[in-house]
């Protein structure tokens, strides 16, 4: 699978390690930055670029990383077609895919250690969307709202 990834300074170490982890698992990774550690950099443009990458690349998934993951999720979700979920435990990782068909996972690297972040991302990638009618219906309502605004 192709995985788009982005981070600010707070997730820079995780991003670099996660790129290797995902590549070792056979995924192709597209890195939307930050490309260098800059302690005062700003997450929005990296996360928006990552979201655009996912939307333009059907079947791909995205990972956005920050200190909490909150702002990164907010920024990615500004891109029409992105469904970014802040994931912080096993249930939220699986439900993001199964119920929400989330195409972007947001992770706060100041909240977990490296291995647990890997674990959450792996769970997210492995879980399929359930396709249950009620979830399809609700996701369609969000997509309809996005379409109305265009
Ligand atoms: O998680 C984040 C946004 O939700 C950022 O990574 C976090 O706010 C960065 O903090 P600082 O500039 O103090 O290092």
TrEMBL record:
EC class name: isomerase
Pathway(s): Carbohydrate degradation; pentose phosphate pathway; D-ribose 5-phosphate from D-ribulose 5-phosphate (non-oxidative stage): step 1/1
Catalysed transformations (reactions): aldehydo-D-ribose 5-phosphate = D-ribulose 5-phosphate
Gene3D superfamilies to which the protein is assigned, alphabetical: Sugar-phosphate isomerase, RpiB/LacA/LacB
Keywords tagged on the record: Isomerase
PANTHER family: DNA DAMAGE-REPAIR_TOLERATION PROTEIN DRT102, RIBOSE-5-PHOSPHATE ISOMERASE B
Protein name: Ribose-5-phosphate isomerase B
Native source species: Actinomyces weissii
